[in-house]
Here is the input.
Amino acid sequence: MRNVLIVLSGPSGVGKGTIAKLLVERNEDISLSISCTTRAPRIGETDGKEYFFITKEQFKDKISKDGFLEYSEHFENFYGTPKDFVLDSLKTHNVLLEIDVNGGLDVKKAYPDAVLIMLLPPSIEEIRARLIKRSTESIDKINLRMQRIEYELNKKDLYDYAVVNDNLEVAVSDIENIINQEKNKTSK
Here is the structure.
């Protein structure tokens, strides 16, 4: 059996964070990857737990040395998946990345054995309702996120699997089954 790099992507509000947390809690052989960022730590965040907090200079140096499986810039800060951390973790565990669609596709280019799973909402209306229920963003922000959903969903055919999250337990079970199936395959 091989350890698998699993990429979980999908639109905001689809439940990626909840499912990632449950997968890690319920499966000793799955660890969540830790990203690098240039943003400052928030209250309660610890370096090496939520993120690896590094300077922009350190981040750019890692880019120049091909040190990321994927990276992007958001609101003047960089975020990236450190290649060495993931590859070292894969020696002992399956590794789960919870990242956006573009990052997932970049990971697949850098590491073709990665297994891409797109988490889908039961409907567009349901995703809007979930985002509103969160009460963490303004309606304007929610509308911006809704515009991005169509773009993300149009990328689902580039992913290895698609799982609809209309029942949390079923979705987690479906993803666990995919992971177990992939662990038994030989490298591509």
Notes: The domain at 5-183 is CATH 3.40.50.300 (Rossmann fold). Helices lie at 16-26, 56-64, 83-90, 101-110, 124-134, 139-153, 168-183. The mean pLDDT is 92.
